[in-house]
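Design job #97: recover the sequence.
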């Protein structure tokens, strides 16, 4: 036992400035280039369809991930995590090729399901591996830097995606998404797990007794759902809302959103390491509510972009803080399950923000839908204060003493 502990200590990196960590950040960047192409162009490609159909096509991606994610978490903790990165990368590439074959919404659905499951495998596997490359004292900074890889993708991909669709075709845009997913796979396969699960034939836990939903991640992930639902809502309905109100290129919203997302991921990680996660997450949730109240009332492009700037800041800060809290509280051997539970928040947000909100928007308006999701970050504050804050403040105090 002592030898194993010593080995794990030797494996712990002193800094995030390593080739492996850089490759992981590059991999997640390419993966979210492909994802950004899909969240902008899939709703736009279905602009002639009823809102409820758009909501289903957008939201079924999250529904597939939501159903499969707990199983993926168990798989990731049951063997080589690198394998699931490869499976997810290959399946995502296939899904984008499928999007390019037909813009019929019912034919796109099987590929959306494939994409949702594949995204769970890729992001969960890579997140669990990345956690082993981040030293404890730089946890927030490391997570913020890693997540900055996907924020940079959000910075430039959406407006380019719109331009490609307008000047070429949606099919070409989706094929470029397949290329980006392939690059994510190529760079991701070189990232090795420094802290793999220790398994033996004698101590394997029966499947039915394994941790399908992480206890350490559940409550923080529920707080994060309040923000991911806002992302699901914008992904499904912002392009159509922009057309309705003549707010201009919706891709610019994601550019501004991605810029502040990038800044907040770097700054909030560092601030959380230094001053504690709670002092970052509560103002960020408040900002998330403000952003969607502004968006719901937008009558000009400037107002839309202001909402995007605040929303990006809020999401980045909450995301980095929540992920740091989960890793703070989870042993290395269970991080696959913890990361699966954390990323499950994205899938639940896609379902609530896409499918369920689609029916509400169809019966009311886009504006009412955005007002409605603006209430969710306020609920996130209440949930955090009464379920997460006390234990996290103790961890923050202990770190400040060190």
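Job complete. Output follows.
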């Amino acid at each position: 036992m002592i030898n194993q502990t010593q080995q794990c200590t030797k494996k712990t990196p002193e800094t995030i400035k390593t080739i492996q960590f850089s490759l992981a950040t590059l991999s997640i960047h390419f993966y979210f280039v492909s994802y950004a192409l899909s969240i902008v162009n899939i709703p736009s490609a279905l602009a002639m369809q009823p809102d409820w159909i758009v909501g289903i096509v957008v939201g079924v991606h999250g529904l597939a991930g939501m159903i499969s994610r707990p199983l993926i978490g168990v798989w990731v903790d049951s063997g080589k995590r690198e394998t699931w990165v490869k499976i997810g990368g290959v399946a995502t590439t296939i899904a984008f090729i499928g999007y390019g074959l037909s813009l019929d919404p019912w034919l796109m659905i099987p590929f959306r399901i494939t994409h949702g499951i594949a995204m769970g495998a890729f992001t969960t596997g890579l997140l669990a591996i990345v956690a082993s490359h981040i030293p404890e004292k730089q946890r927030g900074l490391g997570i913020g830097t890693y997540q900055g890889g996907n924020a940079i993708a959000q910075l430039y991909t959406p407006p380019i995606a719109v331009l490609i669709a307008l000047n070429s075709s949606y099919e070409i845009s989706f094929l470029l998404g397949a290329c980006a997913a392939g690059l994510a796979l190529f760079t991701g396969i070189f990232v090795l797990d420094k802290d793999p699960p220790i398994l033996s034939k004698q101590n394997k836990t029966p499947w039915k007794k394994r941790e399908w939903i992480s206890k350490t991640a559940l409550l923080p992930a529920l707080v994060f759902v309040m923000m991911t639902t806002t992302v699901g809502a914008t992904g499904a309905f912002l392009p159509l809302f922009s057309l309705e109100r003549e707010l201009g290129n919706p891709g610019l919203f994601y550019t501004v959103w991605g810029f502040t997302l990038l800044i907040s991921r770097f700054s909030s990680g560092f601030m959380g390491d230094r001053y504690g996660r709670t002092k970052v997450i509560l103002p960020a949730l408040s900002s998330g509510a403000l952003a969607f109240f502004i968006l719901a009332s937008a009558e000009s492009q400037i107002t839309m972009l202001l909402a995007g700037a605040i929303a990006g800041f809020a999401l980045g800060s909450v995301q980095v803080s929540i992920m740091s809290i989960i890793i703070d509280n989870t042993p290395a051997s269970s991080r696959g399950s913890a990361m699966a539970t954390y990323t499950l928040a994205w899938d639940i947000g896609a379902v609530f923000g896409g499918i369920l909100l689609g029916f509400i928007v169809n019966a009311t308006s886009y504006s009412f839908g955005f007002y409605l999701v603006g209430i969710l970050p306020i609920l996130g504050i209440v949930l955090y204060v009464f379920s997460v804050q006390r234990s996290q403040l103790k961890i923050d105090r202990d770190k400040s003493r060190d």
